[in-house]
Amino acid sequence: MSHIAREKTRLLSRVRRIRGQVEGIERALNDEKDCAEILRQIAAARGAINGLMAKVVEDHIDMHVAHPSLGEAERAQGARELVEVIHSYMK
Fold first, then answer.
1. 21-50 confidence digits (pLDDT tens)
2. What is the mean pLDDT of the chain?
3. What PANTHER family does the record tag this protein with (predicted)?
4. What distance separates the 2 farthest-apart alpha carbons in the chain?
5. Tally of structural domains, the chain
């Protein structure tokens, strides 16, 4: 988990931007904005979520699957965790 702590500020900044995007979608819906504008906002929020996911997956691979100091059991566990999350994310 120390690798998450090192990236905590950047990750939280991404989450705050995503929160702002989702709040913008809510405002657009409440204000009955044009559907094309709402779709663009949804697409942007989805892209931001995907970017956050990609960063955390990358860090997980680096630290829990590919790190040279890991033993085989630790690598296998890290890979299993990653596969489970990706299956859930793809649903």
1. 999 999 999 999 999 999 999 999 999 999
2. 94
3. TRANSCRIPTIONAL REPRESSOR FRMR, TRANSCRIPTIONAL REPRESSOR FRMR-RELATED
4. 55
5. 1
The Cβ of residue 59 has, within 10 Å, a number of other Cβ atoms equal to 15
Give which of 41, 18, 46, 19 is closest to 28, Cα–Cα: 41
The pLDDT of residue 1 is 53
Give residue 24's domain range.
2-90
CATH number at residue 38: 1.20.58.1000
Least confident of 4-13, 33-42, 44-53, 71-80: 4-13
Tokens 């931007």 found at: 17
